[in-house]
Amino acid sequence: MKIRTWGCRGSIATPGLTTLRYGGNSTCVEIRPSTGQTIIIDAGSGLRNLGSLLIQEKETAPIRFFFTHSHWDHLVGFPFFRPAYLEQFSIGLCSGPHAEDTMLKSLNHQMTSPFFPVDFRFLKAKFEFRCEREHGEYGNCRCHGLEISQMPLNHPDGGYGYKFMENGKTFVFLPDNELGFRHEGGLSHEQYVEFCRGADLLFHDAQYTDQEYMRARGWGHSTFGEAVDLALEARVKCLVLFHHDPDRTDEDLDRQVQWCRERIRMAGSAVQCYAAKEGTTIEL
Ligand SMILES: [Zn+2]
Ligand SMILES: [Zn+2]
Q1: Which domains does the chain have, with CATH numbers?
Q2: How many Å apart are CA 6 and CA 24, to the nearest integer?
Q3: At residue 35, does pLDDT exceed 60?
Q4: What distance in angstroms lies between residue 56's CA and the mean position of ligand 2's atoms?
Q5: 13 C-alpha to center of ligand 1: Å?
Q6: pTM of the full predicted structure?
Q7: In which band, very low, low, confident or very high, does the pLDDT at 141 lie, cut at 50, 70 and 90?
Q8: Phi, psi of 234 (to 5 degrees)
Q9: Ion ligand 1, residues whose Cβ is below 5 A away
Q10: What gap in Å lies between CA 183 and CA 62, rounded to an integer?
């Protein structure tokens, strides 16, 4: 599968001169399984550019969304997703177990007057609101040849992270997850380690430095150090630091990546570590 980042900024989109290299769009990640269809995780502001690309492509293969939660930075791009306005597209909407009704309500809500001039009902694509789920602890499902597991997030208002598996390769996506604090519905550190165990690629929340976290405890996000320690404990092959703080400049991120790599080196590990960057594609 190919994983492409369209938005990796947390909390709010931050266009501007200080975020040019890593990008200012909020969360949106595309997965292309070997079947060639399109899976989209979250509908942050980065989704608008992905929508334009999908329209340029000749084939209109079914699109399936997996939503992590309803916070604005993860939904704000949906009303600007042009394929949703065209009848030749078919779009499935998935989220964690029992969360589909909430997600649908949230998508509808942000497109009602006076928040947005076009009502969800006027979208022309064919929508499918349920996904077939096998029985599993948190409900597994299959989609476009991928096997997918869900994982509750440690985050205010809850949410779900995902594990995507294809041909023996594993990609774990935990974008808004506070490892050092227990929110309602969230799980223990050990359970996240278990979920990530041996993953080829982990995108994990790394919004704060240790110092910043002192004033942000309980806000739903992890530190760089916590993300690195999770990757080390779970023995993942590659860690991608995700959900960049809106105040984090490109130079800040370069420094944090060096800091994380040093922590990994000191632990005697060979885990690769990068900061998520808009426009990059990783192939597993
Ligand atoms: Zn977020
Ligand atoms: Zn959030």
Answers
A1: 2-283 (3.60.15.10)
A2: 10
A3: yes
A4: 31
A5: 10
A6: 0.95
A7: confident
A8: -85, -5
A9: 10, 73, 176
A10: 35
